[in-house]
Amino acid sequence: MPGRCRRASCRDLIAHSGYDDCYLDVLGSGPLTSVYLSSKPVNPDGSLWTPTQWITATSKLASTIRPTLGTGDVTGNGIGHGGRYFSTTATSAPLVAATDQIAAEGFVRDAKASITAYRKEADWKKDVDMLVDAEAQGKGMLTITKLWMSATAAQQDSWHGYTRQPSCSAAMACPDSSSCGIAQRTRRR
According to the model, what pLDDT value does residue 186 have? Predict the structure, then answer.
């Protein structure tokens, strides 16, 4: 059973690594898109997974791991962005309740969008409201803003400034200037 193996793996890695967190990647519906894999995941009956089925299954997986970790936390990845989080047909919001904290890799922009493309205010507000909703549930959120294209230092600085607005509090990190990513983390503790 995959869940049993994942629980044991997380528990063992925490015990032997000295870290206090198990990171579960790909909980969101990304694998159901045509650009993610060479073929889409199928159910045992041969039908394609729906986003709702996927989120339900991965939320269940994450929530069954948490009790086995003792004092360790479960961090998941797969929220995407506010638009997906608040979607009425394929929401990623259940991942918040299933984890201690969750990563949103599409915070305020899509990774490969034009360097000059900023979200419309209503879409930006969904991203911010997603943070507010997670915080209201007592959960942390790691927000990641990716610039996966060539960008001048001034353009990168512009994105740094944009994501450092008061509504986007937390520590910032930009590992290198060629593929700059801005990581922010709010923590429930």
Answer: 41
Q: Taking the domains of the chain in order of start, what are their residue ranges?
A: 2-186
Instruction: Provide the residue type at 125 as one letter.
Output: K
Tokens of 14: 């925490």
Residue 13 host element (H or E): helix 2-17
Question: What gap in Å lies between CA 175 and CA 58, rounded to an integer?
Answer: 29
On whether the CB atoms of residues 146 and 115 are closer than 8 A, the answer is: no
Which residues, in sequence order, are CB contacts of 151 under 8 Å at separation 6+? 115, 159, 180
Distance CA 141, CA 184 (A): 8
Would you say residue 170 has pLDDT above 70?
A: no
User: 3-state DSSP call for residue 35?
Assistant: coil
The predicted structure's pLDDT at residue 178: 35
Tokens standing for residue 47: 């039908």
Amino acid type, 92: S
- Give burial (CB, 10 Å; 0-12/13-18/19+) of 87: middle
Q: Is 106 exposed, middle or buried (0-12, 13-18, 19+ CB in 10 A)?
A: buried
